[in-house]
Each structure stands twice: as structure tokens, then as C-alpha cells.
Design a protein that fits this description.
The protein is mostly helical. It has four domains: 177 residues, Glutaredoxin; 111 residues, no CATH class; 195 residues, Tetratricopeptide repeat domain (Serine Threonine Protein Phosphatase 5, Tetratricopeptide repeat); 142 residues, Serine Threonine Protein Phosphatase 5, Tetratricopeptide repeat (Alpha Horseshoe). 59% of the residues lie in helices and 3% in strands. It contains 32 helices and four strands. The chain has a four-stranded mixed sheet, with helices on both faces. Helix 16 packs parallel to helix 23, helix 23 runs antiparallel to helix 24 and helix 27 packs parallel to helix 29. 43% of the residues are buried. The N terminus and C terminus are likely disordered.
């Protein structure tokens, strides 16, 4: 078996090969794929998950080949757009069980409304969700803390590496190693028995080719065949035929859907958790629902994701024991922000009275509690308390927290109670970094808060409680420990109260939305986002989450349609055209990933118009609008370049440079910059003898600030002494 070798050795050994001489510069080394290149199908077959790949490898005795790819990185673009689509290269990969890892999403969705797969346009036989989900597994097992792309790793049946190629200076050496890995291998692969099995027997297989054939047969087959396939899935839960069961769950035949739910209830593989979670969103009989929940809870022992889903379905259907959401909603109806200064004066007067009482009796619990509360308010609000005094010991803010805690602890010892005292103890202890000690006091404070309380301390302690519950859930998930559904209910209720609190913020809405999205509670997340935008219509943070949410739920068309509808309303936020422009850029980028160049160009055109409208309507947006106009023009140039429209591409790039030179190194959503496109375009112009345009473009490049011409950090190759591949372990 070939041992892993230093890459420097590979580069010396493979100075040239049948795959071609090594070029002399980056653009020639890894030519950018053209629009025609991207139209060709990816010819390498990828497995859908790491678990599938291992199962297929063990059954066939073929080694696994891990491929790591990165959008925008010049060599990765070449592999994905050119090499993975060439028959002679695909033949080299065929003896392997191949998996692809990439953290970039190219389709907005992985499945359509009927449960049919939407293959990634970049890699072909996997969904974007699959090549994203496998990346952290590969990272943990094989990458040794280095997220480098492109990368190729051969893994043998014992789980050990034979080679790991990265930072290669050409493609020839990589393909030589891939070919040699099979040629020198002592283990013989087993013959493929696929032709001897019926389509129902192939349900048992974890091979992506068999899965694809089974799913195609289900889609095209009659009801008798569909029942037979689902019956086979019921008998073989270890095969994890989630794709097949998803088709039945989201199909229009309720009898088949019920049969699929029964099969899901018997699932033994963690891969089924997501389909069970999605199935539970639909109405069904109580016994069916309970059977699916029981399956999730059973899978929880092996899958943190299943555990998370189980708690979501148990937790969001109940009310918090600490917060009465109905009473809070009524109490905050019509509540308005109260200026802080009058509150400080009032609390200051109360503190003066407390001090007078303490002069008479130093052990007066009520007076100590009032003093603690006043110090807490000063720590939270007083302008003079803000900002650390570096190098001079604790800041005034920290000292006030300490004083508040000291007075509160003394008051508590003497028998003082109440939400104000518990709030002081919670917030002051959290300010000192003691999260564990803060939690019980936050719980007591929230439970005792009068519904409708609008002061600063109520907002802060509610937020602290929400964050502590959120952090506890995340910590338990990471540690693979079970956690009670009540935590989720408490967190959700606290954030919902804050959404109506006069001192609530858009950042809190984002925290709530992000957590619900992480839990995949889409309906509740969408509602939180909708209410947040109604209150904070110009929030960059909320529009950022809105774009992602619309893409997942409505697709690219739905994203732009949402902004078009809002722009037609009489009452609108002045900066709405700016957000519409950015949304059109995002839409264009997804059209590019899906290889729809004409639609991408149209979306960039809309973005430019929206940004112009933004500057006219809200002049304060000029600087950022010009930046994104420059980015949109550069991205448009890239599309035109890939189509072979070199003159139009040059014009768009020159306009981009003139609009905002500092944006020339800014990377778009496909991880490409104007400078990189200009270098590719310059080479093409020279090759086509378009010397006058080449001269104009070179002059424009020379006139850019020097810092924008530097290579990005991920493309600054390290020296040969640090290059290398680990020995087989």
C-alpha cells in the first residue's frame, strides 16, 4: 500500500506526465471554467453521507477518496468546473468510493415540495445540504485543523489514510497520485453485483447509484411498485432509505404517506431524523405522531440532531412555567420607551432615602435592597460608568456592579425578597462572569416580574434569562447530553416578551430567530422575524436573516418578489431600496450557482437600479451603495467573461473600478473578486489579440490601490518546508 508522502517529493517526482506539463502562472495553471464548461455534467459519482461511504467501501472493498473544494479558490474552481466534468479524469476516480466536502451552498433548497432531490449544480449527484453536512465530519477525522482546498485524501478499509494531497502546484501530480493509489494497492475490490438484483432488493443498498435508481423507480412506478418499495424499506431500516421515504411523505397519496411514516417509526439510522422531523410538521393521527416522536427519542442516543428535534416537538407545544405569555402580552400592549434620566433621578432619590435609613439601622433589609438596585441601575445606565480603564484596575462600571452585589447579598441574608433584588443578584453575578450563580436568581427574578414591567432592569434580566437558557441548550447539545423541553419553552417565551418590550432590540430578535432556525422550528422562526421587521424595518441584521429565510422557504424568485411588494406600499422605510438592491445581488449569485447566466445578468441590472434609487431617496446610503454597485458590476463582468463576451466584460470591470477602486478586492457571494476576474480577462484579451482593450484593462489595474492587488490569505501558498502530507496513520 502506498504510504503518504511529502508533497514536495510529489512535486519533484511528477514534473510532467500524460496529463500535461505544469503551466507557468496561476491563471494558466488552473484555467477558469467557461459557461460551456459549467453546462457539462459532473461525471464523478459522490456518496450522500460519510456513513454511506464507509458502508459501501466495506462492502465493495474499494477505498474512499475524499475531495475538498472551495468556491472562488482558483484551483478548486478549475477542478469543479473543468476536471470533474472530463471523462478521462472521471475514470481515475471510478475505482474509489468518492465523497465531496464543501461548505458553500449552490442551490437554495435540497428538495422540492414533493420531496424530490435537487442535485447541486456544482457537484451533481449530491445535494448542497449533503456536501455541507459531510465537511465537519471530514474536518474532525482527517484535516488536522487545516481547512485547505482543493484537497484529495485516500482512506483505506481500516480508516487510515494512504495519501493526502494539498497545496499541489499542478493538477498532473494530483491525478498521478490518484491513479497510483489504485495501481499499487494490494487489496482487490469486489465485483459489482448490481445487475443481479431487482429494484426492490436495491432498497437495501447504501450506494448512491442504487438509491438514485430506487427513487426514480418510485417516482415513475405505479402504486403496486411504490407499495413494494416502501414494504422493503420497512423491512430494512438499517439501510436508511430516507430519500425514498421522503418521496412518499411529501407525495399526494395519503395511504403511501402513512406507510412511509410507519417505516420511519422503525428507523435505526441517524440519517432518518431529518425526514421524521419534517414528517411531524404535517397533521396526522395521535398514535402516528407519538410513534415518530418515540423514534426520534430512540435515535437521540446516537444523534444530537435527533435529540434536538425531539425536544423541539415536545417543547414548543407547551407554555413556560415561569413566564405567563398571555399576561405579558396584555401588560405590554401600548407600552412606550421611558427616558432613562428621569428613572435615574427617581432611583437616586430612593437611594438617598435608603442611605438615611441605613444610618439609623445598618441591617435594614429593604434599605439595603433599594441601595443595591440603585447601584445596579447606575452600572447599567450611567454614561460615566461606560468603558474600561485599561491598566488602572477595575472600571467604574465593574465597581458599581460589585457594590450592588455586596449590598444585595447582605439584604438577602437579612430576609429581603422580590424581583428587583433577584435581578441585582443575577445581573451583578453575570457581570462578574459567574454564569452558574446567576441562573437561579434570573429564574426567580423572571418568575416574580410583574407582567408589563417596562424598566431597564426588567429588559436586562429577561434577556439574561433567555441567553442562559439558550446557552444551556447549546452546551447540552455539544456535550451530547439530553436537555428538558422546558428550557426551550422558557427561552422562546422570554424572547417573545422582549419582542414587545419597549427596550427590546433587533439583536435580541436575531438571537431568537437564529436559535429557532438552528432548532429547525421554521414556523416559529418566521413569525419572530416578521414581528421583528415590523418593529425594526431598517435593521441590517434582520434583513440579513430575512434573505436567508426567504431563500429557504420561497426560493430565489420569492426573495426578490418580497422586496418588490414592499416597494409598492405607500408607507415604506427610506432605505428599503438599498435592501432590495442587496437582495437582487444575492438572487443573481444563486442564478450563477445554478448556471442561469441570463437571469443572473438581469438580477444584477435590477440591483444597480435599486442602489441608484437608494442614493436618491436616502443620500446617507451613498458610500455603501457605491461599494455594492462596484461589486455587482464586477460580478456581471465575470458572467460575461464566462460567456465569452470579452468586450462587454471589460466595460463592466472598468465601470466597477471607476465606481469604487477600494472594492476591487471585495469578494462576492461566490468568493470571487474584481481583481481576479480582471486577471483572467486580461489573459483572454491577449490570447484573442484584443490589444487595445487589454491595454485599457491593464492601465486600470495599475491605477488601483496596491493593497487590493494582493492575493487573499487563503491563496498565499506556504513554503516547501511546510508543505506536505502526513504519513499513513
Amino acid at each position: 500500500m502506498m504510504k503518504a508522502t511529502h508533497l514536495a517529493l510529489l512535486l519533484l517526482t511528477f514534473s510532467s506526465s500524460a496529463f500535461g506539463q505544469r503551466p507557468t502562472n496561476r491563471e494558466a495553471m488552473w484555467p477558469a471554467p467557461t459557461a460551456e464548461d459549467w453546462k457539462r455534467p459532473c461525471l464523478i459519482r459522490w456518496e450522500r453521507s460519510w456513513e454511506d461511504a464507509v458502508a459501501v467501501s466495506q462492502k465493495t472493498h474499494r477505498p474512499i477518496l475524499i475531495c475538498v473544494n472551495m468556491d472562488g479558490e482558483i484551483a478548486s474552481e478549475h477542478y469543479a468546473g473543468v476536471r470533474y466534468r472530463q471523462k478521462e479524469i472521471a475514470r481515475l476516480y471510478k475505482p474509489y468510493v468518492c465523497v465531496i466536502a464543501s461548505v458553500y451552498r449552490h442551490n437554495v433548497r435540497d428538495y422540492d415540495d414533493q420531496g424530490r432531490r435537487i442535485p447541486c449544480p456544482r457537484f451533481g449527484t449530491v445535494t448542497c445540504g449533503e456536501h455541507i453536512a459531510i465537511e465537519p465530519i471530514i474536518y474532525e477525522k482527517f484535516l488536522d485543523g487545516k481547512r485547505v482546498a482543493p484537497r484529495h485524501i485516500m482512506v483505506e478499509l481500516d480508516g487510515k489514510e494512504s495519501y493526502d494531497i494539498y497545496y499541489a502546484l499542478d493538477t498532473a501530480s494530483v491525478f498521478e497520485a490518484i491513479e497510483k493509489g489504485i495501481a499499487t494497492r494490494k487489496i482487490q475490490a469486489r465485483p459489482d453485483p448490481r445487475g443481479d438484483r431487482s429494484i426492490t432488493e436495491r432498497v437495501r443498498s447504501r450506494d448512491s447509484k442504487d438509491r438514485e435508481a430506487v427513487e426514480k423507480a418510485y417516482i415513475q412506478g405505479d402504486k403496486k411498485l411504490k407499495r413494494a418499495l416502501l414494504a422493503e424499506a420497512m423491512k430494512n431500516p438499517d439501510a436508511d432509505p430516507s430519500g425514498l421515504l421522503r418521496l412518499a411523505i411529501f407525495g399526494f397519496d395519503q395511504e403511501l404517506a402513512a406507510q412511509a411514516r410507519a417505516a420511519l417509526a422503525r428507523s435505526t439510522r441517524p440519517g432518518a431524523a431529518e425526514v421524521i422531523h419534517e414528517a411531524l410538521r404535517a397533521p396526522m393521527k395521535a398514535e402516528e405522531r407519538e410513534a415518530l416522536l418515540a423514534a426520534l427519542e430512540r435515535l437521540s442516543k446516537r444523534s444530537p440532531k435527533a435529540r434536538r428535534y425531539a425536544v423541539v416537538h415536545r417543547g414548543l407545544g407547551t407554555g413556560s412555567k415561569l413566564l405567563d405569555l398571555g399576561r405579558w402580552t396584555k401588560g405590554l400592549a401600548g407600552a412606550e420607551y421611558q427616558p432613562a434620566l428621569p428613572q435615574l433621578f427617581a432611583v437616586g432619590e430612593e437611594a438617598d432615602r435608603a442611605r438615611k435609613r441605613l444610618r439609623k439601622d445598618r441591617r435594614d433589609p429593604a434599605a439595603l435592597a433599594a441601595l443595591a438596585y440603585s447601584r445596579l441601575l447606575l452600572a447599567l445606565e450611567a454614561p460615566s460608568a461606560r468603558g474600561p480603564r485599561r491598566g488602572r484596575g477595575p472600571s467604574q462600571r465593574e465597581l458599581l456592579f460589585r457594590d450592588a452585589l455586596e449590598a444585595a447579598e447582605e439584604a438577602a441574608k437579612l430576609g429581603a425578597k422580590g424581583w428587583k433584588l433577584e435581578s441585582v443578584l443575577a445581573l451583578a453575578r453575570m457581570a462578574g462572569g459567574d454564569r452558574k450563580a446567576a441562573l437561579p436568581h434570573a429564574e426567580k427574578a423572571v418568575a416574580a416580574l410583574p407582567p408589563g414591567e417596562t424598566g431597564l432592569v426588567s429588559a436586562r434580566v429577561l434577556h439574561l434569562f433567555a441567553r442562559l437558557r439558550r446557552d444551556a441548550i447549546v452546551d447540552a447539545h455539544r456535550a451530547k447530553r439530553p436537555w428538558p423541553p422546558q428550557w426551550l419553552t422558557d427561552m422562546d417565551s422570554a424572547y417573545r416578551v422582549l419582542a414587545g418590550h419597549p427596550l427590546g432590540t433587533d439583536r435580541q430578535v436575531v438571537e431568537h430567530f437564529d436559535m429557532l432556525s438552528w432548532l429547525d422550528a421554521k414556523g416559529r422562526a418566521g413569525l419572530a422575524l416578521q414581528k421583528g421587521l415590523a418593529r425594526f424595518p431598517a435593521s441590517w441584521l434582520l434583513h440579513d436573516r430575512l434573505r436567508g429565510f426567504l431563500l429557504k422557504t420561497k426560493g430565489v424568485k420569492g426573495l426578490e418578489a418580497w422586496y418588490r411588494r414592499r416597494l409598492q406600499e405607500k408607507r415604506q422605510e427610506r432605505t428599503l431600496p438599498w435592501f432590495a438592491g442587496y437582495a437582487s445581488i444575492v438572487a443573481a449569485e444563486f442564478h450563477r450557482r445554478a448556471r442561469r447566466p441570463e437571469q443572473a445578468l438581469a438580477a444584477y441590472g435590477r440591483a444597480l437600479a435599486f442602489f441608484k434609487q437608494s442614493v436618491d431617496q436616502a443620500p446617507e446610503t451613498r458610500t455603501s451603495a457605491e461599494h455594492y454597485v462596484a461589486v455587482a458590476l464586477a460580478s456581471k463582468a465575470r458572467v460575461l467573461f464566462e460567456q465569452g463576451a470579452l468586450e462587454a466584460a471589460t466595460d463592466a470591470l472598468l465601470r466597477s473600478f471607476r465606481t469604487r477602486p477600494s472594492a476591487a478586492s471585495a469578494r462576492d457571494g461566490l468568493n470571487l473578486s474584481a481583481v481576479e476576474t480582471a486577471r483572467m480577462l486580461l489573459r483572454a484579451l491577449k490570447a484573442e489579440k484584443m490589444d487595445s482593450l487589454a491595454l485599457l484593462l491593464q492601465k486600470a489595474l495599475d491605477g488601483l490601490p496596491p493593497e487590493v492587488l494582493e492575493l487573499p490569505a487563503f491563496e498565499r501558498r506556504i513554503g516547501p518546508s511546510r508543505r506536505g502530507l502526513r504519513r499513513r496513520r
